[in-house]
Amino acid sequence: TLFPLVFLSIDCGEPTGTRTDKLGIKWVGDGDYISTGKTAEVQVSNSYYQEDTTLRYFPYQKKSCYVIPGVARGRKHMVRASFFYGNYDGKSSPPSFRLQFDGNRWADVNTSSSESKYWEVIYAPKRDNISICVAQTSLNQTPFISALEVKEFERGMYETEDTDDVLRRWQRVAFGAKGFV
């Protein structure tokens, strides 16, 4: 069976609408992928990326999940979650919380007042959907998310010995790139 490649970029905190960025990437609002949480705009925006100007935060739930339907089971996907605090709550206190994919612990997120942080994982989903969750790890630390991207890879890309293997981004270097942030 042939599946269309999933190429989804979600602007979290922007419930509806679509836009295309300078790189030609189509961003959609997050309203179709989550029904909990509240939306906010950042107060301090020194980010290059427009998707960092809004976010969705979760003050009442211990764990909140985005569910991405229609992915090809067993095919490698890259999932990237981005976080830009931007003092959205006026507290000048960037929170820490946990990030999970498909029920697996992914990372402990320590956000920053001044820079966007992101985490990536490449893996093959075992179901026809992907869930990405943020979970509170301590009181007075409210989880949030700025952007979420899911990209399905062509067969043969990032192939590993076992379909259960997970690849996590450690570092990315753009050799020869000039003038790109």
From TrEMBL:
It is a single-pass membrane protein. GO terms for cellular component: membrane. InterPro entries: Malectin-like_Carb-bd_dom. Residues 10-178 form the Malectin-like domain. It is found in: Membrane. Its main location: membrane. This is Malectin-like domain-containing protein. It comes from Nymphaea colorata (pocket water lily). The lineage of its organism: Eukaryota, Viridiplantae, Streptophyta, Embryophyta, Tracheophyta.
